[in-house]
UniProtKB/TrEMBL annotation:
The keyword Transmembrane helix applies. The chain crosses the membrane at residues 12-32, 107-128, 140-163, 183-200, 212-229, 1114-1134. It comes from Candidatus Roizmanbacteria bacterium CG_4_9_14_0_2_um_filter_39_13. It comes from the Bacteria. This is Membrane protein 6-pyruvoyl-tetrahydropterin synthase-related domain-containing protein. Keywords: Membrane, Transmembrane, Transmembrane helix.
Amino acid sequence: MTLGFLFITQQKLLKSFFIIVFFVALNAYWLLPFANYTVQKGSIVQRAPTFVAINESQLNKDSSYFSPLRQLTFYPQFFEMYFTPSETNQREYFHPLAEYVNKYPRAFGVITAFPFLYLLGGVLMIILPKNRLRWAWIPGIMFTFLFLTLKEYSPVGIVYGFLTNHIPFFEMIFRFGDTKFHPFIAFSGSIAASYALVVLYRWGRRYIKKEYILSGFIVLFIIPTVFLYKEYITGNLIGFFMYSRIPDAYRSLAEDINKAPGYGRVLHLPMEETTQYYWRPYSWGYFGSAFFHYFINKPYIDRTFEPASMENAYVHTQITDLLEEIQSLPTPQAERERADRIYSFLQNIGVEHLIIDETISTNQQVRGYEAWGNVNVPNAQKVADLLLAHGYAKKKSTYEIDLQNLKTTGTRFPYLSSKIIGDTEYLSLYELKDIPDKVSSISEVRLMQEVSEDSLNRPQYEHIEHYGEGESGGSIIPFARGDGELTGDHSSVQYTVPLERPLQGKYTLSFAEQPEDQSLIELAIRNNGIEYSLVLYKRIAPTVGDVEFKMQFEEITLPLEKDIASFEQEPVTYANDWPKQQVGEIIDVYRIRADGTIFPVVIPQAGNEIYLGSFVTENDDFSVELLERTKREPYNLQTFRDIPNSGCYNDALEKNSADLQLSTPTLLTAKTKNGSLCFWSEFKDVMTEKTTHVELEMTIMGASQDLDGLHEYGRDVQTVKPRLKSAVQSFSKPSLLNICLRERSLETCLAGAKLFAQEEKRFRITATRDMAGMLDPMIFFGLRTSGYQSVELELRDATIDLYDEEARIEVSIPPSSTLTPFDLTASGELSLSFPRDISLHSYVLDTAYESPGYFSDLCDRYQTMRRIEKGILTFGQGCESTLFVNMPYSTQNMYMWTVDYFLGSGQYPIMIMGDEHQNYLVERASFFQGYPNIPGFHPFQDPETIFTSTQWVNTQLQSANPKQAIQMIYPQTDVASNKDHSYYFRQTTENEGLMTVSDMQIVRIPAHWASLRLTPTQGSIVSYKIPKNLTFSRILPSLWKFSYEKTEDAVMIKFSEGYDRQWGIYSSMKDVLFGAPVAKSTRCDGYANCFVLTEEWLGGNDLFIFYVPERLAVLGWILTLGSVMGALIASRLYRAS
């Protein structure tokens, strides 16, 4: 762009043209490869896990971040980076100038002297010179790049939005405006400022003596500027943490690795466990990206290189997953299983050398501060111990690093204590056994219909030795996909995955190497005209298309009243996950309990049967009981007692008040303002010794008032989207009533719901599990506010129903029947359907009357929660908005977690699952479903303009189309944990973030269904010839030579380098430079490159594996060196003439 301005504004066009050509040719050695990288890998940068968090952060900054003052003064984004000195435990900025500027904002008065001069100079250069056009390139560059660095927040920000939306990669390449644009402003601004000073001097000397002008310039500009920027010339041009002396132990380690004969990869542990960081901190002082690869001649695995390959990103993710809870493996058998998985994975990706580095630590001992990050040396050491214990690796060497006597020459340690308190720490080198060669051949490969790009992270592929995509189809593993969609109702769900190729023909269904430890059982009531019976079915597998896999294994006669079908039922809303019946009504006199789960009784018409529900069980034998209501009585609402806010949700704001009115046994009124109100009641005196089930029924009505305006909350927060904020505030705030029936000493609800306490409605709360033996049962109500809000609630006419066991029978689940091949036809998508599990482990949101949980705390700027027709709307500025559910959880189970949401603006939400100690799942929503460019999302991302109307904002909100985010939570058979888990859907954003949530589901399915595989009866496995005497050698990292004896059958070559479609096999060095490949790369085994060689390329000659972009590098260097030589020759000829 700079050269373009120069070209346009200069009158000597030919000369300008040659200058531009020379400059491009001079930089061709990096421009050509970078252009290829941008085109080929542009989308990867957006999705590389180490870049996702920083991209989301940079693209969703508050408007104040792009204020003219910040951009005019070149305020760098790294000035926001901080650390924590060990002695003070107080955060400090990495750069001293940032500390000064952020603590003393008036320092901007000095900083703005330069912007004043260059802006003045730019204007003067447009006005004063006689030949303005020749000088116009300077203000042109300056003002253009200033416009770009202000992004959407300049007066003409709509133009920047247009460029972002219509120029490929524009937003991604220029997401860091300071690093991309500030240097050009500084360059042109320096010239413009000098011009301004010359003009001012010429004008000033007419009225002021030269000596006074010079003195004034020194006092007003030179001295303040030098004083402010002195840090740049006293050792802090860059961050102090960048100066480090690498211990000699790393050089010794590198020498030993380089001496090893193989080409295997090097894995350096511990690795940063979160995906948002790729810097690693070392106790000897270094904090930054990878450095060790400069010492070795073998490929090095590190998060630094994720933007070049999503395959590498998935390698890092899998390593992190394999280390999870590795210290908590309960048995030697579990340790063996984990060791097998780790070794198999490391073999697959070609790791030969393992480094365990004890110095990788957030505790920077020799610098005296705590760095950010999450690294775990004990987990890394456990990996090495397991590999050693099971014979998969051997220890080669240990290298000592003495922190006490560490040489620090040439380094700067500004936060170092007078004496280093350090230890001796070690580097350990391990060598893995039997690692496959870099270039090898495959005898047999399983063809897959479609392989998920993150198949390395999917456990279903761990038991397949070799796999790859087949052009004409192959096996498909539906639950190993991250791009499926879950739909359905309270009765059943349908899971669909997209297909690029149609399925047609005979298929078999199997569960690969997975024991059938869990069963999905369906219950139905059958009416034969004489009596009623309970029918039990075993779901062997989901229904595929229209092919059903279930078997009846039990029919039990039910001793029901003969006239039960005539029982009258009052209209009521069941606040549970029971199926919403299409035929018949629920009979409240009876309930059925199967394996501890409660089901309704619904009476079908004669000759029919009606579905009651389903459950997943780990048991081969279980009991089925018929429960009969023995007592219904009014519940005395005067037994409720309130709880102080500090013992409730502890969310009281200013002017908080609460009142619980218990005027009559049938009416309870609760009022709360600016804080939650909790109240509870014991009912153990109501239950009898025979009571095993309880249900509570009541009428609920509520009203609320938004008090944000009264308290002026968010009024002074500057927004660039006032119409959107106003539209959001026009919706009413939800008032949430949390109901929980539980044992007083426990937190898990046996019955519960989170209801909107607004419209008048009669609800029935049903316990889902057996209540027999409860010592101190209680009913808990929590009436929650959202920020500044007043809520009034009425509970009326409450009743409680008690049920006793009427009959019981023990049943056994038989083994599944043999599955035979079946005809399958599917095009565009494959559909699997199955009944929904009803248990504490499953959840389905009905936004007509219930809500997920949310936090009511206020943030420093502005945040609000609103109820809309399609669910819940959250809006925040510089805040965190979270919706959540708390659920029982087991590592032995398989769960599917979905959220249907609409993203209006701000960062993409994060899906988090964890317990009170740690998070086990943290992933950006919709990562495999179109992220970050989902159609219809982000209509409010840009600042509002004069063209943004209130009607347009309202129309966009009303027509918002939610999309589904899905997470597969696979069973972990080697870890035993049954802690309750929380599922969080969280948006954290600095700009105005808006999202709506219209549905949330957690569906449990039998654990072995995760490995469900559909395989065509023909053509799913392809065999290849193993050639004799396969040899290979490395010429360059991008060029490998191999050969083998001639064969007559096709050969598959596996090249264990991260998959890239630009690898190819070439028949000669001439073709390497100029020709086409004889075999193109396809992804195999989830990571590597595979090539199929047929016909004349079946051996006997040397073949070459080559990375095509190296051609551009060679061409670039030719152009660069040629331009240098040409310039030298032209210069000599010019001087000679």
